[in-house]
What we know:
Structural class of chain A: alpha/beta
Largest sheet of chain A: 7 strands, mixed
Low-confidence stretches of chain A: none
Number of domains of chain A: 2
CATH class of the largest domain in chain B: Alpha Beta
Radius of gyration of chain A: 19 Å
Distance between the termini of chain A: 45 Å
Number of helices of chain A: 12
Distance between the termini of chain B: 67 Å
Low-confidence stretches of chain B: none
Number of strands of chain A: 14
Mean pLDDT of chain B: 96
Mean pLDDT of chain A: 98
Order of helices and strands of chain B: EHHEHHHEHEEEHHEHEHHHHHH
Radius of gyration of chain B: 23 Å
Number of strands of chain B: 8
CATH topology of the largest domain in chain A: Rossmann fold
Shape of chain B: globular
Largest interface: A-B, 41 and 49 residues
CATH architecture of the largest domain in chain A: 3-Layer(aba) Sandwich
Helix content of chain B: 40-55%
Strand order of the largest sheet of chain B: 1-7-8-4-3-2
CATH class of the largest domain in chain A: Alpha Beta
Number of domains of chain B: 2
CATH topology of the largest domain in chain B: Rossmann fold
Number of helices of chain B: 15
CATH architecture of the largest domain in chain B: 3-Layer(aba) Sandwich
Helix content of chain A: 25-40%
Oligomer: heterodimer
Amino acid sequence: MSKINLLQAINQALDSTLAQNDLAICFGEDVGHFGGVFRATSHLQEKYGKQRCFNTPLTEQGIIGFANGAAAQGMTAIAEIQFADYIFPAFDQIVNESAKFRYRSGNEFNVGSLTIRTPYGGGINGAHYHSQSPEAYFTHTPGLKIVVPRNPYQAKGLLLASIRDPNPVIFFEPKKLYRASVGEVPDTDYELPLGQGDLLREGTDITLVAWGAQVEAIEKAADMAAEQGISCELIDLRTLLPWDRDLLAASVKKTGRLIINHEAPKTSGFGAEIAAAIQEECFLYLESPIIRVTGLDTPFPLALEKEYMPDALKTFEAIKASMTF
Amino acid sequence: MTDKRKTDALIVHRPVFIDSSQLSIPTLRILKDDGTLYPDASLPDIDEALALKIYDTFLFIRALDERMLASQRQGRISFYMTETGEEAADIGSTAALTADDMIMAQYREQGALAFRGFSLDQFMNQIFSNELDLGKGRQMPIHYGSQALNYMTISSPLGTQIPQATGYAFALKTQNKPNCVICYFGEGAASEGDFHAALNMAGVFKVPVIFFCRNNGYAISTPAHEQFAGDGIASRGVGYGIKTLRVDGNDVLAVLKATQEARRMAVEQHEPVLIEAMTYRLGAHSSSDDPSGYRNKSEEETWRAKCPVLRFKLWLIAQGWWDEDQEEQRKQAHRSAIVNAMKKAEKIPAPTLEDLFSDVYDTPPWHLQEQYDALKAHIRKYPEAYPKTSWRLDHE
């Protein structure tokens, strides 16, 4: 075990992959010698050479198209998109190609060995082009898996599982936690299962669900609620597609109440999917309406980022509203 | 005959592959490093007033960039980008235009905006994201924009402005406006699909646009030779049927001359033009970057010696239009004006809560109104947690 930050955990997962798998390559803008703008790929080119870890030209559609091709040939392609906000030129390659490669060919071809890593979310004074959480555009796309880690331990295990999963995965990294989140991580190679949520605190009165950096917000809100005698059960979804509906439904059947927290705007955010599915599963168990505490339906702001964010206070207010409904 | 492809222009009987050696692209240079002219050089249209306006913009931008980078280091602002070393490229080209020609910039062309007349206070209000920022505090520092000055607001995603420039120019042509669009981008952004779409469409539609590439050698850490294998960006213009010219981007007279000619072709003949200005990003990509990780000092020194500001200054002095005393005075004046404007701007409050919700649409639909009301109620309950907006929530 070593105490490392989230970036180092990602670096370890990539290092482990490149060491074990000769067909693994990682690439993207500035990821080579420089090690990426956040340094997630530091020293990998030094260790494995320019054939295995390299810079690409500045073209996101090119990066993912190239990655699709390399993965179709059988290589383990790990592509970095420098910011999730810049993934959209590659939207066609991801949504029409990566996601449908297997299906459209009747499984003659697939790009299952593709993983797209990309930093997402606010917290770095990045305004609307360095802060977005675009996960819901992709959870609406059959054929993709969507994974979001919340800390270094989760990041390493989930990234290794994403790389080895035989389906294309988009791995959203909470950039706000890159250096801020530090924790004990095994030095060895390990995987955490995709498609399974993580019950991180048991409780009896209300269920709070989030993923990535927002897990911190629900933890703080749960602490505030505990001081008022409210017992919260906390779930980190970890994978958004396919998501662990059964874990969440079992929790809501127990508590009867649910708050969903995500950073992306409310309208058509992934919270809408969760709320719909949980009312289908748990209708007779619900004691109050499911509440979404989310980013606003505005572009991500700069000066008023604090006001925009679905923080612990807003979550705490929602808990009280749900409890007193 | 509607098939106009040239299939029999030159017939050969054994395979002949062509490469870039068949195309040799010259570089326009007018001023030598020592500030003297090449004897056969064709000068741009320039008089003392224009020359001094360009030079004063150089001095202003150098002072602004230096001071704001220092402010970022002091934690007074979150982010900054300098254009040090590239001033001749954007300022010299903008100087060739009329004030109602549209500028669509990338993000390292604050000099062009300063030349247009963006005030020091306007710069500061944007950089400090205060309530007087024309962009209402929504974008990171250096994302300027001004309808009045025909400078389209900067967008961080790379290359998106390039096809927009083609469309904007098409609109100008369709309405018979005697104007053009200049579109700035770097050699890295030219790898984006948008670049290729833009040039192709401009060539097809014959629109008054000047694509102006600042080839400064680096896209963050990625050197140009890892960005493309061809002969720079200029060689691509030819492929898209666009008039193309390469210019020494550190020679402001050459940039001015090139752009004056380009503007004539664009506006009078609706010929799109590609200009590739060869220059060098002397500073870091941004305040978040440290170039010592990917290039060496001696390379930087080589380019520092080719300083576009110094080269032009030597020419101005030789014209008898400038001297060292004036130089010192202006530098000092810019520095103190910048410090004063900064102190003023950082005291101006953040935008109001209403500005978080305005402009998503022309008028806020019900769901935004609902979220605005809910947020106001929440902030009233916890005013200390949202100090930027709570203090005047009830005075808006």
